[in-house]
Amino acid sequence: MALQPAITDIEQLKDRPELARLLAWNAGAITGAKFDRNELTIWVDRTSLREACLTLKNDPQLQYNALADITCVDWYPKDPRFEVVYQLFSIPNKTYLRLKVRISGEDASLDSLVPIWPGANFFEREVFDLFGVRFDEHPNLKRIMMPEDWEGHPLRKDYPVEGYR
Amino acid sequence: MAHMTPTPVLDPSDDKTMVLNMGPQHPSTHGVLRLVLEIDGETIVRIMPDIGYLHTGIEKTCEAKFYQQVVPLTDRIDYLCPMTNNLAYCLAVEKLLGLEIPPKAQWIRVMLNELTRINSHLVWLGTHAMDIGAMTVFLYCFREREDVLRLFEAVSGQRMMTSYFRIGGLALEPPLGFFDRVKDFNDRFPPNIDEYESLLTTNPIWTGRTKGIAQLSAEDAIALCATGPTLRASGVDVDLRRDKPYSGYEKFQFNVPVSNDGDVFARYVVRVQELRESQKIVKQALEGIPEGPVKADAPHVVLPDREKMKTQMEALIYHFKIVTEGFTVPEGEVYMPIESPRGEMGYYVVSDGTAKPYRVHMRSPSFANLQTLRKMCEGRLIADVVAAIGSIDIVLGDCDR
């Protein structure tokens, strides 16, 4: 099973139903796509994340009705610094889809998904705790892993891993 | 540990409710879970789980290790199903590398994973029953669990932190006579399950404490990101072993138990049925073990056999290179979900082309499933909280990572 090179051209991926649906909904909100190792990734503009999720969830064919995971990757010192990663799962179709949102380090905030999936609560709190990304309209955005008085966000790449803090 | 100073839930002018602290050293919380309960008499008004006491920063540690050095860390996340975590991580990195695993290794991986599921479910059943007051079941369950742990010790040298899977296959061939021992255990296991069931399933105290308790509807379970038996007991038929087969699960025949009741009893029934299905899968695995190597043919990734290392120059060089500088993984990212005894265990691994993972994220089932506790308990009696926690089957190491 030799690795195939990743396809990153939106034009070539247009026939993937997830991407086609999102492009039909709002082509301006889709900032990129990638098909690599049999997994589809779609980059979404940060302001339209919630509507994109709703579109995928309510589409009668795609039915991405479950949220599998939320996490974040810190690409420090690149800009935009953070990539928040959403794994959606369609229970009827048994397919996974990855949505990504790029956000800059200065204004690290985006819409919370708790109104759509209440289960996003803990995942978003974890990302907030360990990366310092804020989620607007989150009902209880507090640290979840670290003590409340902890300073800094440990999973950031510029967080010191040795010496005194 | 977000609620070190719990949010003031009390209205000073209102003396109807009181706040009760449960845990983190409460024996029924299966580890160090702390619950802040706001109660009105014996009815729960609000329940706030407080986790993080076992947070050890494994995700951060992974970023400083070579890919192969992460495997022992994955054991320590969920100490009741180490092999499942090993497998999820190895599969993720193998997918990043594009590595083909020999069928014998896949077969043994499946077999050990089902034994791990049996082990995990036995601990769950024993402790869950003990929480509710049935002490005897615990002793019976741990009797069989001991047999499974002896099998793990035989194959990996460790009872709990097995670290037996490697990127590219297994650490080594199972010892002589191992499969006979597995067969011996597997053949006498079904009567044991009947034994547990005879103690519980029709027991009026057990059914009284579990039927209709802590109900969760299918819509709520999906919305709250529940997975695994917690979701299946609410009537949603998802099992990644069948729906997204990995490591050769598509070659095995098994049923996925589902119940529509969504209460504690349904979750108990689903898990006990899963014990039986796991036993069947182990049986199939034992009957059809393919011949061949247990490591992939990829000398730059897989450590050479000891014998080769002593006789062949190249093997020695490869060994030296892998141990001292690791192996590089092509750039990319992978999300690898598998069905752990508790639900969807997903590993999200990002590679930047170096010998160390850029980011490893574990989507742990306990963490997500714990969110259902609120829906299950609010408005119910305080005595049912313990039954509800037990029925989600959380492992706090898995939850906090």
Q: What is the chain-wise order of helices and strands of chain A?
A: HEEHEEEEHE
Count of discrete alpha- or pi-helical segments spanning 4 or more residues of chain B: 17
Number of helices of chain A: 3
Beta-strand proportion of chain B:
5-15%
- Which range best describes the helical content of chain A: under 10%, 10-25%, 25-40%, 40-55%, 55-70% or over 70%? 10-25%
Distance between the termini of chain A: 46 Å
The percentage of residues in β strands of chain A lies in 25-35%
> How would you sum up the global shape of chain B?
globular
**Would you tell me the structural class of the helices and strands of chain A?**
alpha/beta
Low-confidence parts of chain A, pLDDT < 50 over ≥5 residues?
none
Structural class of chain B: mainly alpha
Overall shape of chain A: it is: globular
| Main beta sheet strand tally, sense and closure of chain B | 3 strands, antiparallel
| Low-pLDDT segments of chain B | 1-6
- Provide the residue-averaged pLDDT of chain B: 88
Walk me through what this model shows.
The complex is a heterodimer of chains A (165) and B (401). Chain A is an alpha/beta fold. In chain A, 19% of the residues lie in helices and 28% in strands. Chain A is built from three helices and seven strands. A five-stranded mixed beta sheet of chain A has the order 1-2-5-4-3. In chain A, strands 6-7 form a two-stranded parallel sheet. In chain A, β3 (66-74) and β4 (82-90) form a beta hairpin. The longest helix of chain A is centred in the C-terminal third of the chain and has 12 residues, at 120-131. The radius of gyration of chain A is 17 Å and the shape is globular. The mean pLDDT of chain A is 87. With 401 residues, chain B is mainly α. Chain B is built from 17 helices and eight strands. In chain B, the strands form three sheets. In chain B, strands 1-2-3 form a three-stranded antiparallel beta sheet. Chain B has a three-stranded antiparallel beta sheet with strand order 6-7-8. The radius of gyration of chain B is 22 Å and the shape is globular. Chain B starts with 17 loop residues before the first strand and ends with a helix. Mean pLDDT of chain B is 88; it is low at 1-6.
